[in-house]
Amino acid sequence: MGVTHLRGIDGIAPADWDALVGADNPFVEHRFLAALEESGSATIRTGWQPLHVILRNGAGLLGAVPLYAKSHSYGEYVFDHGWADAYERAGGRYYPKLQAAVPFTPVPGPRLLGPVDQHAALAGALVEATQRYGVSSTHVTFCTAAEARALGEAGWLVRRGIQFHWHNQGYRDFDDFLDSLKSAKRKMIRRERREVAEAGLDIETLHGPTLTAAALAEFHPFYLATVDRRWGNAYLTRRFFALLAERLADRVVLVVARRDRRMVAAALNLLGGDTLYGRLWGAQEDYRFLHFEACYYRALDFAISLGLKRVEAGAQGQHKLQRGYAPVWTWSAHWIRDPGLRSAVHRFLERETRELIAHRAALWDLLPYRTAEMSPEMSNATLDDMPRDAPVSGSVS
Q1: What is the DSSP secondary-structure string of 111-146?
Q2: Please, how many CA atoms are within 13 Å of residue 382, restricted to the half-sphere of its CB?
Q3: Distances from the Cα of 142 to the Cα of 112, 126, 131, 264, 301, angstroms
Q4: CB-count exposure of residue 286 (10 Å: 0-12, 13-18, 19+)
Q5: Distance between CA 46 and CA 74 in Å, rounded?
Q6: What domains can be seen in the chain, in order of their start residue?
Q7: Could you list the pLDDT tens digit for every one of the 397 residues in the chain?
Q8: In angstroms, rounded to a whole number, what is the distance separating the alpha carbons of residues 158 and 78?
Q9: Which residues contact 340 (CB under 8 A, 6 or more apart)?
Q10: Quick one: which of 39, 40, 109, 387 is 20 to 30 A from 363 by CA?
Q11: Residue 29: left (phi > 0), alpha (psi -120 to 50), or beta?
């Protein structure tokens, strides 16, 4: 069995990489990762140096990991700035580090690509890379619960996070979904949608033959507008959106709001096997409740019409709770070389985990569904197959 590191995703044939991925999650597909690299979004220049792990034996390809050497902690959405600051104040050097992730994309999904029986070997390859490159640490972010469990069993520190995901309970249409909510929230959503409808906007959901390269090209300034408002970094280049149109048009779902044929706002989603992933939003004119309509309600409409199981609306945003998005766990795993830093991070994770368990329980009680209408399937789905009282050890039970 041998491990190699690719200095770019173009070092492996798309069919070989995608054979390890499956068809459910577009963000780990070869064409998405290639678009990030070829567009100049995820490169050495931007602090994301590709070092993708490839695991082979004499019979062929066994597994892979999308891996990057990082000179900072931006564009990750699992925040370790405090760890870095504390370590460097103590005289250590936190950067560079290794990151197994999809750049700029806080979407849960597979990171240890390939059969489950290769997870231990891939975890070992990541530990070996930490030593080989002399970096402080390696971080596997937004991995699956099963991967987090496997990494925890291999001695990694496991961290939880919370996102808000919507689960389809076999709704016939949007009104059927509304009927599952408490009266006050049902009225709130209807009022918000009505106000947007009365604003004189033309809103359409573009996918498949209705989506054009020109529409995606129009979106880039809206992405920049959101970055400017949030004092963030414009990670994604104009070329990236052109490559999305060229290579992933079948995955893109673009909700566009126009006034007098002029685009005023848009929400970019990607379509997975059974999930719609909300990714980016931008507006150049302000309309009350338009963000909720474009990013949430139109996404639910689309998901219901296709019979999708979930809508994942990205990082943060407790306001999603009132609109039927339930709090679910996200997972990451961390291998830290320095025993002192590792011990300090472990203590931090114990405290953080206790707080998150209590916080998620409180959020759960705020869900707007009528209790009698919440099916056992929804409860199980939103728990991500993990007990709500999982041990506070920094690991997955």
Answers
A1: SSBS-GGGHHHHHHHHHHHHHHHT-SEEEEEEE-HH
A2: 25
A3: 11, 16, 23, 32, 26
A4: exposed
A5: 10
A6: 2-163+327-382 (3.40.630.30), 169-308 (3.40.630.30)
A7: 699 999 999 999 999 999 999 878 999 999 999 999 999 999 999 999 999 999 999 888 999 999 999 999 999 999 999 999 999 999 999 999 999 999 999 999 999 999 999 999 999 999 999 999 999 999 999 999 999 999 999 999 999 999 999 999 999 999 999 999 999 999 999 999 999 999 999 999 999 999 989 999 899 999 998 876 655 678 999 999 999 999 999 999 999 999 999 999 999 999 999 999 999 999 999 999 999 999 999 999 999 999 999 999 877 777 899 999 999 999 999 999 999 999 999 999 999 999 999 999 999 989 999 875 555 545 544 444 443 333 334 444 3
A8: 12
A9: 90
A10: 109
A11: beta
Query: Can you read off the two tokens belonging to residue 99?
Result: 């990151």
Joined tokens for residue 165: 């995901």
